[in-house]
Amino acid sequence: MTAQLPPHSAPDAAFSPTSAEICDFRALDPARDGSYLIIMAIRPIITAPDPLLKQVSAPVKAVTDETRALMDDMLETMYDAPGIGLAAIQVGVPQRILVIDLQQPSNGDGDGDGDGDGDGGIDGINDERDDAEPVRNPQYFINPEIIKSSDDVATYQEGCLSVPEFFEDVDRPATCTVKYLDYDGNEQVQDMDGLMATCIQHEMDHLNGILFVDHLSRLKRNMILKKLKKQKALNAA
Ligand SMILES: [Zn+2]
Fold first, then answer.
1. Helices in the chain by DSSP H: which ranges?
2. Could you tell me the distance, in angstroms and rounded to a whole number, from the CA of residue 130 to the centre of ligand 1?
3. What CATH homologous superfamily does 7-236 map to?
4. What is the model's pTM?
């Protein structure tokens, strides 16, 4: 999921090794005190239309160092894009894994108030954000399940890293309760509202091969997909 963030939130891009460099590094120093060096890599994001994005992702059987390395890469990829949420399938891995970081500003009202007014910044219209430093607070969700959701809906203008540069209003349950495994493989249950509730539902849709454009009218969806297809053809030329 994307949010238009203020300019100073641009990723610092301090260290983004190529995959070749990572391989070398791991070959040279695969383990130290039993723990792998943490080296994150930015992976290419798949954009629509692409059959992979329609695929239903499989549950993760065990949370391993490999799972954590993937989540580290996903987070780095998301910050670089920039976005506020990313599903593993968006980097071509069909596993039920998400990373989310709303990167809300440090000066108080970071939304999450569930009022659905969109000031969480999906639509990029939020003057308050301009003076505030976004705070990183990454969250990792493995095998997430919605165990409860509200009847009342919230409407946010959503964007998606796999549907670049399109933003449309989507209605979703305003609050939800999600059960998942965290970074260490421990089971967690979290109540969510506001932007967080919308974001996790958007990301969980990806695990079932659904994009936010699938919530729009067929006319609007086809228009967007046609433009994306055209853009891909132009880029490939
Ligand atoms: Zn998305």
1. 19-28, 65-80, 194-207, 218-236
2. 24
3. Peptide deformylase (3.90.45.10)
4. 0.78
